[in-house]
Amino acid sequence: MLSGTGFETVFRDMKAKPTPPKTLDRLISKMGLGSRTEARSWVGASRVKVNGKVIQNPDFWVNPERDKVELDNRPLEKKKYRYLLLNKPAGYLTTYKDPEGRPTVYDLLKGVTDFLSTVGRLDLDTSGLLLLTNDTQFGERLTNPDYHVPKTYLVKAATLLTDDQLDRLRAGVTLDDGPTRPAEVVRVRDAATKTFIEITITEGRNRQVRRMLEAIDSFVLKLVRVRIGGLEIGGLPPGSWRNLTPAEVQNLVAASRSTKGPKPRTHSTSKALVAGATPIEEDEDADDLSEEETDE
Ligand code: URA
């Protein structure tokens, strides 16, 4: 078992390096305090001071090592990292607020006071495993296709699928945004005029599985994400959430293998890095998911 909360140690095998300057909105968001949009509104509302002086420009550059930044007269403190697994039901949007007032996944997070971003997205009609976190680098690892994290979906196709159609999915099909990577596809069962398959992809393009099925002349009737890496939705009831364990977080990071980014930490490395360490964070390639999400 990891000591402490465990999360502090999971990603810590990088040597401490100086924190580069950031704009105010980005710094606040990077510290897990809110989205960049929220941060910009807080700055605009004169709630943020830099070295004792109110700054109303969210694009103001600060050096986190040198400048004293306060929100509501309190120094910025990094939020504890949090990782949730939600079993998203169909009919909920993966967005923070819907202008039309439709239900969103955040309506299901009663009692969660931390600001969490979704790790990628599921379509309105897709159900199943959705992760939420305030750890932007973790989110980046799981959503950026360069990290090849496998995501598995159970699909109810509208037609009976032939072996040839499944082979086409396996080989990769051409979508309007380019060819897909090879996928793992398992025929689960045929039922009268429909086929159920399990498909595992390592990209997360917008409506990718639905478009892949259309590319083989069928379409999706039902789509459920059942697994990310080795993490299963299991028996978690629809609409419910639970915290991930440190080991689950660690395994997800280990499932990410980058073709260009840093190598994931190994279990033994992480175990050796004990309390007091700061989580991921100082990866300047990690984008703020709340603003620049990769669609799943
Ligand atoms: N692929 C889709 O088509 N939709 C989703 O929600 C997820 C993956």
Keywords, separated by commas or semicolons:
296 residues; alpha+beta; Structural Genomics Hypothetical 15.5 Kd Protein In mrcA-pckA Intergenic Region, Chain A; Pseudouridine synthase; 9-stranded mixed beta sheet; 4-stranded antiparallel beta sheet; 20% helix; 24% strand; elongated; disordered C terminus; binds uracil
Architecture overview:
By secondary structure, the protein is an alpha+beta fold. The chain has two domains: 5-75, Roll (Structural Genomics Hypothetical 15.5 Kd Protein In mrcA-pckA Intergenic Region, Chain A); 83-282, Pseudouridine synthase, CATH 3.30.2350. Helix content is 20%, strand content 24%. It has helices spanning 7-10, 24-30, 36-44, 136-143, 163-171, 208-215, 246-254, 267-272, and strands at residues 22-23, 48-50, 53-54, 61-62, 69-71, 74-75, 83-88, 117-118, 127-133, 151-157, 174-175, 178-179, 184-191, 194-201, 220-228, 231-232, 241-243. Strands 7, 8, 9, 10, 13, 14, 15, 16 and 17 form a nine-stranded mixed beta sheet that branches. Strands 3-2-5-6 form a four-stranded antiparallel beta sheet. The protein has a two-stranded antiparallel sheet with strand order 1-4. β15 (220-228) and β16 (231-232) form a beta hairpin. α2 (24-30) crosses α3. Mean pLDDT is 84; it is low at 11-16 and 260-296. Uracil binds at residues 122-123, 126, 207-210, 223, 296.
